[in-house]
Write a structure and sequence with these properties.
Helix content: 40-55%
Number of domains: 2
GO biological process, one term: response to redox state
Bound molecules: nicotinamide-adenine-dinucleotide
Pfam families: CoA_binding, Put_DNA-bind_N
Number of strands: 9
CATH class of the largest domain: Alpha Beta
CATH superfamily of the largest domain: NAD(P)-binding Rossmann-like Domain
CATH architecture of the largest domain: 3-Layer(aba) Sandwich
Distance between the termini: 49 Å
Strand content: 15-25%
Number of helices: 9
Family: Belongs to the transcriptional regulatory Rex family.
Shape: globular
Strand order of the largest sheet: 5-6-4-3-7-8-9
Largest sheet: 7 strands, mixed
Order of helices and strands: HEHHEHEHHEEEHEHEEH
Protein name: Redox-sensing transcriptional repressor Rex
Subcellular location: Cytoplasm
Radius of gyration: 20 Å
């Protein structure tokens, strides 16, 4: 199966920010929001916002803007956030625990059903409502719980071996927080995440604005 390439990747990455702004407008009791207001909030060009939002199929009205409720539904639907995504976490350490405790994921359909870790201090415990199991239960639990997404927060030297186990168990997508480029079959989606990218942008922006400190 070919690797899925998304032409609209930057747009997809901006959609959650749009959703935050539009949800805030809904909380303020607004029925409509203009592309210009969204653009101002996010320091983007209005044309960019309108182009991005067109991908969700929702059309704004001249001088009135976008209907807030429909826009929220359209963004959630485009992002597949209106569906339940059954997930597990492998590696219940510092990062794994932080992700288990992040309530936004639940609000957006991500249901973390179990975590797996070899540490006897963690097995049998519950972290933020998520039960931690031993690694030798992983394959059976993935099948039993009908899980499709695995969040990988293991030490880097364990990443490839764990990924291979996940693929064998039938996992369809791996959200990879390790710094390893995983080798998996083409039908398994891998999304690699790196907080350092954000830090890099922050540091360079700060240097440009204030000079090196
Ligand atoms: N992408 C990012 O921005 C980012 C940020 C922080 C950490 N990380 C990466 O995430 C990973 C975890 O970082 P951390 O700070 O949580 O480390 P940590 O040491 O706190 O946690 C790692 C956990 O994995 C468990 N583990 C070890 N071998 C395992 C295996 N084979 N299967 C399942 N679990 C196993 C350990 O017992 C531990 O609980 C590391 O690879 C780190 O480099 C990435």
């Amino acid at each position: 199966m070919p690797i899925v390439k998304l032409a609209s990747l930057p747009t997809i990455k901006r959609l959650p920010s749009y959703l935050h702004v539009v949800e805030a407008a809904q909380k303020d009791g607004k029925d409509f929001i203009s592309g210009t207001i969204i653009a101002e909030e996010l320091e983007l060009e209005p044309i960019q916002v309108r182009k991005d939002l067109a991908i969700t199929g929702i059309v704004g009205k001249p001088r009135i803007g976008f209907p807030v409720k429909e826009l929220i539904n359209a963004i959630n639907s485009f992002l597949e956030w209106d569906k339940i995504h059954r997930a597990i976490i492998v590696g219940a350490g510092n990062l794994g625990r932080a992700l288990m405790g992040y309530a936004e994921f639940k609000r957006h359909g991500m249901s973390i059903l179990a975590a797996f870790d070899p540490s006897t201090d963690k097995i049998g415990k519950t972290i933020c409502g998520v039960p931690v199991h031993s690694l030798n239960q992983m394959v059976n639990k993935i099948r039993e719980l009908d899980v499709h997404i695995a969040i990988l927060t293991v030490p880097s030297d364990q990443a490839q071996a764990v990924a291979e186990l996940l693929v064998k168990a039938g996992i369809k997508a791996i959200w990879n927080f390790t710094n390893v480029k995983l080798k998996v079959p083409g039908n398994v989606v891998v999304q690699k995440e790196d907080l350092s990218s954000g830090y890099a942008v922050l540091a360079v922006k700060m240097a440009r604005q204030h000079g090196s400190v």
